[in-house]
Write the structure tokens for this entry.
Amino acid sequence: MTVFKTFWQVVNKYKATVILYTVLLIGFGGLNMATNETGTTFVASKPDLFIVNEDKDDELSNNLVKYLEDNTTIKELDNDEEKINDAIFYRDVNYVVYIPKNYGKDLLNDKHPEIKIKSTGDYQASLAEMMLNRYLNIQNTFISSNKNVDDIIVNINETLNKKTNIEVTSKLDTHATTKATSYFNFASYSIMAAVIFIICLVLSSFHESGVNKRTIVSSMNYKKLNRNLLLSSLVYSFIVWVFYSVLGLIMVGDILFSIRGIVYMLNCLIFTFTSLTIALLISTLIKNKDAVSGIVNVIALGSAFLCGAFVPTKLLPDSVLTVAHALPSYWYINTNELLSSMEVINMSTLQPVITNFIVLLGFGMVFIIINNVATYYKRNIVKKI
């Protein structure tokens, strides 16, 4: 009980640090969610075209022009090559189509007239080229089997007017899952920093030379002391997890009340536990309080950058992700990413998530074992001194 009370007295002195990491999470985490928001609405864009039609009296040529007018934005320019080149250079138009003289008649006579183009080479120009090629392919198909102009035009237009109905069957709210993933990914930095920084500062007080020697000569076994410190640290870490989970409910919304949200928070809880075991190990190995801040920056910030808390994992090089596999944050963030795109939540789809949970818990167990071994040898060294 004495250890527990002393632990919280020291924690109270450093509460401003937790507030600082919370402010960082709200500020930068909120910005991160805003910049990563995605929508499911598709808005078609029309490329800017200029048409040079030297076969204006032909029905086939005019039908091609009408198709382009309906599906693109036609720009008005002087038919002057220098002005056309300037318009392309300054991106006033994306695509220029040159319909040659006698184009329609040459088609019917199987002379294969060539439509020349000029292009900016950007994605809008590629869209215009795709439209033009689609029309020409359909036109050539009907001309090869029928030389009646009226029939050709009717068949071309009927084919082009056929629409494919697309039904979105997914009921996944990608907007909400993206927000949740962004929040919990960024929270990995705040949680790890708050847990490691505070616990290391608090426990370093218990590992000071004078306090450590008095503990050794007392009746308290070092394993019991470690258990008491672990229990106190567990309570503190649990409070941190609850605090950031409630904050997540406020920032993310109702999705956290679903099964998916429960898995998000469970993942966060396991990660908090792993961060706690890292803190216990560091506090055993490092006595200097001044070094704690630097260690927190190396571990928490380094993990955040390498594992995808700040930069999405899909943008990170494979070499970085290979290194990230050796860090607990990678498995935590990987779970969040899996949840963001998981259509259905059941035992089958959760298998990769469960694997990540086991890996995280494995990290925690390894850190606890190393901590006990390090404590045992350090105490034997102190006794000999």
